[in-house]
Amino acid sequence: MTDIEKPTNFIQQVISADLDAGRVDSVVTRFPPEPNGYLHIGHAKSICLNFGLAQQFGGVCNLRFDDTNPEKEDDEYVQAIIEDVRWLGFDWAGEPKFASDYFGQLYSWAQHLIHEGKAYICELNAEQMREYRGTLTEVGKNSPYRERPVEESLELLEQMKVGAVDEGTMTLRAKIDMQSPNINMRDPVMYRIKKMAHHRTGDTWNIYPSYDFAHGQEDAIEGVTHSVCTLEFAANRPLYEWFTNNLPLPSTPHQYEFGRLNLNYTVTSKRKLKQLVDENHVDGWDDPRMPTISGLRRRGVTSAAVREFCDSLAVAKTDGIVDLAQFEHFIRDDLNETARRAMCVLNPLKITLSNYVKGKEELLSAAGHPNRDDLPARQLPFGREIYIDHSDFSEDTSLSRKKFKRLVIGDYVRLRGAYVIRADQVIRDSHDQIVEIIGSYVPDTVGENPPEGIRPRGVIHWVSATNSVDCDLYLYENLFTEAAPDAGEGSFIDHLNPQSLKIVKNCKAELGLGDAVVGQQYQFEREGYYCLDGKHSSAEKLVFNRTINLR
RNA sequence: UGGGGCGUCGCCAAGUGGUUAAGGCACCGGGUUUUGAUCCCGGCAUCGGAGGUUCGAAUCCUCCCGCCCCAGCCA
Q1: Cα Rg for chain A, rounded, in angstroms?
Q2: Which is catalytic among the residues A141, A146, A194, A260?
Q3: Could you tell me if residue A302 is left (phi over 0), alpha (psi between -120 and 50 degrees) or otherwise beta?
Q4: A129 touches strand B (CB under 7 A)
């Protein structure tokens, strides 16, 4: 890929040291999403990191669903996440794993802690628990149930489990330290009652383990050596270690935190993305304006571009905001290399070449890519009537050649892959609008320089007026007008860009685009990168999404 | 405010006492070009602040300033 050596990040350094010192034999990582929403670009960074680490060190990476809270979880998300991780190009060891597969084991570990006098059933309600917890500056105080006999807690936990206890009236808590300066250590909840069906375990359970009581143990069960998560979990690490140190686990995983990805002009929080979907500000989770993996895919962004972008990001403990331009750079970089070239006129203006034989049509051949001969050449029908874009014509003959490299009355321009032509006359309708240009072509200029004295101003794209396909183009802009949509007063919704979608109808595309397929990227020369939209396209109507414009 | 974490070019970031302080993005010049694209050349920081240690500090020490995270029976 790159001949410049990429510096190693702090996690790679830790792993190397662990390997060298013999603390671990082989590396095991995991990507642990909760199936309560769709994956987004921020997750992509974590996916590339975790799977990448495993690849680099010859280890494995698990895909594990952290489904400890049935409230917002659903199998729909499980399936979507599996599809997205695959699309990104990664594969996991064995079947996907689920926290819910370990509910039984977790339960007996909870009993173990009670036996050891390190956990107890607490009957404080949510509000009381908050009061007892203390604040950032004041220590908490012990729950009156803290010294409850072991047997009683054991029995109560069983009652909670079978559904004999009302929600919100009891919890299982770890007995740690209500005086701890780290609030997470003030007797955190291990189990809470939720009489709710789980998308995988059905109504087997009436209690569900909390993130803190589950995560490290899940890691230990799977033999995860390096449990990589984002910065906001740093304060949970002492708790993670408390559980791994106080339980008879099959292995001892360690947690490391890195800074999550933030992109300007973008929101990446499942809650906010869900709101955009639920309130119909976008066309679903896979709306091409969404920063979701499925949205990027539908937009035409390649998985290679996402991977390259993620690999370009530093894995560090700083929480910066990456410029969207950096992502766009990698999108263009990949697309420039891989996208097939084609021509499409967005705002058609007809040109009749008066010296071209009426009824004649020839087939010109154009390269599929300027510097790749492995992509098939295109056949472009050429005739007396063609379309160019309105913006590529001007009547203003005073425009300098340097400033306007397009068609001007009385001057020449090169039609890309075809002839050099000249504009001779403008035809207007009754409203004084330009409707057609009468021009002429210079014979023998296909692939050849024009005769002495004829200097085309530039090269413009075109399409046959009689032999082309119609299509609609969906042009996307940033979803938000503010670089930091969630900053400041008000809701991020207030900063939605009303111009984020512009639909251009009845564009004229070169004939071959009639065979465009979903998943194939194109560069409409001089316009941008486009791909067929799987949702809006049909046999009668071609719809292309603009992935991104050219620079 | 208690605890945890972080401050190097407009943005991301390498740097682990001796470097002319990498690189990418963005931006600005110039060249090539049948895409005003790509490509190619060139330009673009003294390291949050103040002291100190040292022959020598972005790197070590002290104090100060700023930003982020934690007070869900969310993850």
Answers
A1: 31
A2: A260
A3: beta
A4: yes
pLDDT per residue as tens digits for the range A348-362: 999 999 999 999 999
pTM value?
A: 0.96
Q: Record the tokens describing residue A39, joined without a space.
A: 């994956």
* Residue A117: strand, helix, or coil: coil
A34 is catalytic: yes
DSSP line for A469-529? EEEEEEEE--SBSSSSTTSSSS-GGGGB-TTSEEEEEEEEEEGGGGG--TT-EEEETTTEE
Among residues A111, A70, A65, A35, which one has the least CA distance to residue A194? A70
A127 touches strand B (CB under 7 A): no
Q: Walk across the sheet containing A385-389 and list its strands.
A: A459-460, A412-415, A420-428, A434-442, A348-353, A385-389, A463-464
Burial of A351 (0-12, 13-18, 19+ CB in 10 A): buried
Q: Give the β-pairing of A521-524 and A528-532.
A: antiparallel
Select which of A161, A237, A270, A297 is catalytic.
A270
pLDDT band at A3 (very low <50, low <70, confident <90, very high): very low
Residues 369-428 of A with CB within 7 A of strand B = 369-370, 402-406, 414, 416-418
* E strand spans, A409-477: 412-415, 420-428, 434-442, 459-460, 463-464, 468-476
- A17 CB below 7 A from strand B atoms: no
What positions of strand B are covered by protein, i.e. any atom < 7 Å from a CB? 1-8, 10-16, 22-26, 34-39, 68-75
Taking the CA of residue A470 and the C1' sugar atom of nucleotide B57, their distance in angstroms comes to 66
> Which residues numbered 495-524 in chain A sit less than 7 A from strand B, measured from CB?
523
Q: Is the CB of A488 under 7 A from strand B?
A: no
Instruction: Kindly report the number of other CB atoms within 10 A of residue A17's CB atom.
Output: 10
A341 is catalytic: no
Q: Is the dihedral of CA A288, A289, A290, A292 positive or negative?
A: positive
Q: Give ipTM to 2 decimals.
A: 0.96
Bridge partners of residue A468, in order along the sequence: A510
Q: Which tens digit of pLDDT belongs to each residue from A70-112?
A: 999 999 999 999 999 999 999 998 999 999 999 999 999 999 9
Whether the beta carbon of A210 falls within 7 A of nucleic chain B: the reply is yes
> Tell me, what DSSP letter sits at residue A22?
T
CA distances from A333 to A45, A281, A443 (A): 18, 30, 37
Return all residues near A542 (Cβ < 8 A) that are at least 6 apart: A469, A470, A471, A472, A509, A513, A514, A516, A532
CB A97 within 8 A of CB A222: yes
d(CA A260, CA A41): 10
What is the C-alpha to C-alpha distance for residues A405 and A17, in angstroms, rounded to an integer? Answer: 59
Distance A92 CA to B25 C1' (A): 32
A358 is catalytic: no
Q: In whole angstroms, what is the distance from residue A400 CA to residue A403 CA?
A: 5
